[in-house]
Amino acid sequence: MHTRARGNIAEERGCEYLRNNGLRIIDRNVYNRFGEIDIIAMHNNVLHFVEVKSAMTYEQAVNNITCAKLQKLNRAIQTYLQQKRLNLEYCIDALIITDNEIEWIENITL
Questions:
Q1: 11 and 50 Cβ atoms separated by less than 8 Å
Q2: Which residues contact 13 (CB under 8 A, 6 or more apart)?
Q3: Terminus-to-terminus CA distance in the chain, angstroms?
Q4: Residue 26: what pLDDT?
Q5: Looking at domain 3-105, does it have CATH number 2.40.50.1070?
Q6: What is the pLDDT of residue 77?
Q7: What pTM was computed for the model?
Q8: Is 52:11 a contact under the CB 8 Å cutoff?
Q9: What angle do CA 98, 92, 81 make, to 5 degrees?
Q10: What pLDDT was estimated at residue 2?
Q11: What is the pLDDT, as a whole number, of residue 8?
Q12: I need a labelling partner for 41 at 20 to 30 A (CA). Which of 24, 66, 90, 91 fits?
């Protein structure tokens, strides 16, 4: 299976997981000049910008969340908020998806 197809499956699983945990999916695969935002969701009036990482093991997936990746994601988020003229609280989350489980890491920081 190609990497993009595997990523799409992981994002589908991630969206279902977030919905089951009370979040409303606002948007997916938002691209701008700084990069891609995988999932944008809302919960309790807070926007959640969710980075989805999938791999065979938890360690492989979580190690793909680098400082450089978070910096690019933060720039993409700032651009998104400006373009949409949004002034809401937000956080950056990660979904770590392996074959057997999903772990939601809320409010990760640089």
A1: no
A2: 97, 102
A3: 32
A4: 97
A5: no
A6: 97
A7: 0.93
A8: yes
A9: 130
A10: 61
A11: 86
A12: 66
The domain locations on the chain are 3-105
Classified as helix, coil or strand, 106 is coil
Whether residue 106 contacts residue 91, with contact meaning beta carbons closer than 8 Å, is answered with yes
CB 105 within 8 A of CB 96: yes
| pLDDT of amino acid 1 | 58
Token digits for 77?
Answer: 């988020």
Alpha helices in the chain (DSSP H): 3-20, 58-62, 67-83
Tokens of 70: 């978070």
Mean pLDDT, the chain cut into blocks of 10 residues (110 residues total): 77 97 97 95 97 93 92 96 95 94 90
Q: 26-51 burial string, b = 16+ CB within 10 Å, else e?
A: eebebeeebbebbbbbeeeeebbbbb
Q: Which residues contact 45 (CB under 8 A, 6 or more apart)?
A: 88, 89
d(CA 54, CA 61): 5
- Determine the Cα–Cα distance for residues 84 and 98; give it in Å rounded to an integer: 33
Containing 47, the helix (H) or strand (E) segment is strand 46-54
User: Cα(49)–Cα(3) distance, rounded to whole angstroms?
Assistant: 22
